[in-house]
Write a structure and sequence with these properties.
heterodimer; A: alpha+beta; Multidrug efflux transporter AcrB transmembrane fold; Alpha-Beta Plaits; 67% helix; B: alpha+beta; 4 domains; 4-stranded antiparallel β-sheet; 55% helix; elongated
Amino acid sequence: MRVFQNANYKFLSMRRPAYFASAAIITIGLLSIVFRGGLRTGVEFTGGVLLEVQFSETTDVGQIRDALTAGGTTGVQIQQLRTVGAETFDFLLRVPVGEEEDQNAIRDQIRASLETQYSAASFEIARGDTLSAKVGDEFQRTAVIAVLLSFLLTLIYLAFRFEWRFGVAAVIATVHDMFITFGFISLFDIEINLATVAAILTIIGYSLNDTIVVFDRVRENLRKKRKEAYDVTLNRSLNETLPRTVLTSGTTLIALLSLVVIGGAVIRPFAGVLIIGVLVGTYSSIFVASPVLVEIHERARKRAALAARA
Amino acid sequence: MFGSVRWRLVWIAVLVGICGFALVPETIVDEVTGESERVWPLKLGLDLQGGMHLAVEIYDPENTLSGQDLDDAVERTLTTIRNRIDEFGVREPTIQRSGDRIVIELAGVDDPEQAKRIATETAFMEFKIVTDGQEFMDALERIDRAIVNEVGIENLQVTTLETEPEVDLSDILGGADSAAAEDPADEAETEDPAADSLATEEGDAETVDAAEAVDEVTARPLSALLGQGRILGEYLVPQEDQPTAAAWLELEGVRDALPRGVTLHWGVEQVGAGAGSYVPLYVLEAEPLITGDMLQDAGPANRDPTFNQPIVPFETTRRGSRVFERATARNIGENMAIVLDDRVQSYAVIRSVLSRRAQIELTPGASFQEAQELALVLRAGALPMPIEVVEERNVSASLGEDSIRQGRTAFIIGIVGVIIVMMIYYRAAGILAVGALLTYVVFMLGGLAGLEATLSLPGIAGLILSIGMAVDANVLIFERVREELAAGKTPRTAVDAGFGNALSAIVDANLTTLITGIILFQFGTGAVQGFAVTLCIGILASFFSAIYVTRTLFIMYLNRRGSRESVSI
């Protein structure tokens, strides 16, 4: 079986509509972030309490909230989890803490409130994370450093392996992916925690991976020195690598979809972010990275032409 | 050509063999219950097996500690927490220092609240006199009977049967005096009445065991486990029996049977090694000479100027010095045990009346490191630090099991899906890729087990994700081979060219992902590190399986078909 065999799509002629589409999606994402007042950071980054409570009898968010309010705890985000084949009613309870608050006291208070309202035998705290605000700050800082460092090192690597303009194009494509991914994270109200950051770093790797495969082909075709315009060579390279791009994204998406369907509360948002990243990364290696390469090339050529005329 | 294929196959077989070997389930025998269990050798993270992760700091809201003082406080606290490990009763506790923080990981704790309380309680130190053990020996029969009553004779059968081999051995060695014969730390054999009576009683008990005629009156469950110690008031219990004995001593009826005025304390050190390893049990006076709050400071360890043996100086408070003076005056010549959190850390003979400044001389032959450890113990007790829990993560075992089950299902669905796509898309070549993918999975899991990497929930996600990405290298190669075939090359040259031309893209793509993986590992904590490890091992494994295994399979495939025929790709 073959897909996109001998394809000859005019990807590069579509680059202006593609820029527009990217800009629109990024704008929607940014608006969502602004509208929601920033990305929702999990307790791993703010400090606080996260409890996954499994009730053996039916209950709902409202009842739990009433129980907590009665016990004196407010500001708890409650979310029901739906897991395939689960026999219990699972809820996620989150409370961020401030610098002066005691996260352990809040956790104990929540537990006490639940015990008053529900019998102790009817619920179990299956997972509980309790972090001080200070630890949250530290995690946040290391996450930012990790993402930046990852960018920097891959850029250095690309600079060694490719011409600088390939590196710049690859990084622009990756930054583009980051923006869109963050937009989707905001739209779907996924919280930013260590797992999400791991997913984002993986996307950086995947997106670069995809772009590199295309650029590797571009480099090879440029070396053949055919009498062919730069953008034609690029477009041909995109078409030549298209079957691979589609197939690899396809198998990766199959693996990720199985995670989204089967995975529990921790894995599902993580896999969701990765799916967005794979889709966007595939899109950007075709519609962002190579067009940027063309733009850089055009600009250099114009400058050279101007210099020649002068 | 055939020879080279054979070598390739040998290499692959060797690697698959090594990885397969690393994955053979191990049998672990539970020390307490004696039940054996087949365990998959992959180390599971706390989020998968259930357990507790704690990060604690010295509680210091005013920021009064810094530099050397803070460092010292963290070290003392680390000593205190390590000292309490055994109380958790978990298989492989991890207690590590990470900067100014102490990270404690306990797998499979039943009661997280209790574990946390034990770990974070402020250290408590006492100095207590080691008794001659006479009162304890007199009460031993009563204690044994109390154990039989509480546990029930039928539940003790297991224990008595376990001691049978020892009995046989001592019978061969000849004599009822088996305790002395078995004692590994049998230094100075003093003919004191306590040891004698112990030996006789133990001998009796074991003879009865051997005859398998244990009844409620003659059973001596505790006596049977006690061996003579190095000093009076110290008894050695085989290490494998220690948890059982400790559980017995906690029983209500047994506590009541203990003589008044003495308490039993386990020691921290192990005597002997390997199969002949013993844990000491001490009979101490219940009333302490002084407690930790009367200690001012201790250490650093140094050496005695004349005899060059390690010594640990310590200092008492003004009030402590008066109490200490009176207490030591009454007990010259006695052994004084240093008890931290109920466990005997060390003991020393009181040579003279001690007051404000005193020092502990270690036995000749003790290493300087032992002295340093003792100094740390003394300081931990003298200057206990309040601890603050800054991070706590609990996962119940049942949630962990759910996660493993979900992960397994997602793994199977993912891999079957990818296999189906590859077979439909590439036909015969797809089957080769599937072969390579399966070796990849073996490499991957074997690598995880061999490197003793911890598999976490995000790690499983990384594993599944890497299956999708592992075929990428194969896809790159196969697409290349198709192009070369389309360009009119013969199958063999097309395959060679395909592998050759795809290589640079594969290397670049894998290296960039590897960089990300390494950064994740460096900066991540716990679960994220697990993800990074699987990602990195996955990249290496997929690189090898795609470049080497697929190629070998391809060569075999071409050899069978002859060079003129077309390839199914």
